[in-house]
């Protein structure tokens, strides 16, 4: 794309895309609706992002670019296991609730374009995702072992610990359509549900790990 793009217009388009993606998901969103939401014509929208696919990538890059460094900082810190669990839960819910379509987008990419998602993640992190994981996984494992030795935690592999933690945070966003049907949750009810989960999930996870 040309270098004469207007940053304000580009940001307005990204904001509109987030709004429409929240409303319909990335699969159900239409470029025409995004253009109308942004207050631009569809030709200008295509000039900036060429396709809905590229627009979805741009929104993902923006959200992940804010989240990934913070997650790495949390797990790479000297904070206790308890603090890391609480910090991650709060970080994940606070960021993703602003763009709740992101987990669904990631799942779809993992099914249909895993190489592209890996490339995007590497671009954001500055290295391959596996390298990021290896940077803090040994420290996390050592912290778990320390807690096991003093009888404060049941033994669990650090990768299993992370998968459990992430899954419990991700599930409400991926399953939002089901929660809407089963619990009759409108947007306000879902927001209250997330507030409650933000408060209760750290203790739930830590209690499950105690002997």
Fold and architecture overview:
There is one protein chain. With 211 residues, the chain is mostly helical. It folds into two domains: 1-50, Homeodomain-like (Arc Repressor Mutant, subunit A, Orthogonal Bundle); 53-209, Tetracycline Repressor, domain 2 (Orthogonal Bundle), CATH 1.10.357. Helices cover 81% and strands 0% of the residues. It is built from eleven helices and no strands. Helix 5 (81-96) packs antiparallel against helix 11 (187-209). The longest helix has 25 residues, at 52-76. The mean pLDDT is 89.
The helix/strand class is mainly alpha
Strand residue percentage? under 5%
| Helix fraction bin | over 70%
Q: What spatial form do the alpha-carbon principal axes imply? A: globular
Overall mean confidence score, pLDDT: 89
Low-confidence stretches are none
Distance between the termini: 57 Å
Per DSSP E runs of 2 or more residues, the count of β-strands stands at 0
Q: Count helical runs.
A: 11
Annotated CATH topology of the largest domain: Tetracycline Repressor, domain 2
Main sheet overview: none
Oligomeric description of these chains:
single chain
